[in-house]
Amino acid sequence: MNLKRTFGTILTILGIVGLIYAAIGFVQHSGTPRELIVYGVLGLIFFFTGIGLVRNTGDVAKMFIKRIDMNSLCFQINPHFRTTYNCSFRDSISLPPL
User: Any transmembrane segments, and where (predicted)?
Assistant: First the structure.
């Protein structure tokens, strides 16, 4: 579980709640305009911060799939494979991005 993505999701939901609360208060003329502006601005800040965290945080599974090192792959397949095939850093495979 990725903590940054979870926190980003929580911030996004709080931002949406703040924006909805400000919109309902504006339509129903409840509360002072200053309060509604504060709720709206805080909702926007939370919303865009949460979206930015979710978007810019890389997925851990995708990071490990992008590149497979043949040294570890050779050792996992057969511990004695190193003696018959020269596994070096040049033999690493780069997969296309997902």
Answer: 7-24, 36-54
With b meaning 16 or more CB within 10 Å and e meaning fewer, what string describes 58-90? eeeeeeeeeeeebeeebeeeeeeeeeeeebeee
Can you tell me the distance from the alpha carbon of 30 to that of 46, in angstroms, rounded to the nearest whole number? 23
Q: What is the pLDDT of residues 68-98, one digit of tens each?
A: 555 555 444 545 544 444 455 444 555 555 5
Q: Is the whole-model pTM more than 0.70?
A: no
Alpha helices, DSSP H only, in the chain? 3-28, 33-56, 60-65, 70-77, 81-84
Average the pLDDT over 49-68 and give the result: 72
User: What is the residue type of 10?
Assistant: I
CB 6 within 8 A of CB 53: no
Return the domain boundaries, the chain: 3-58, 62-94
pLDDT at 56: 87
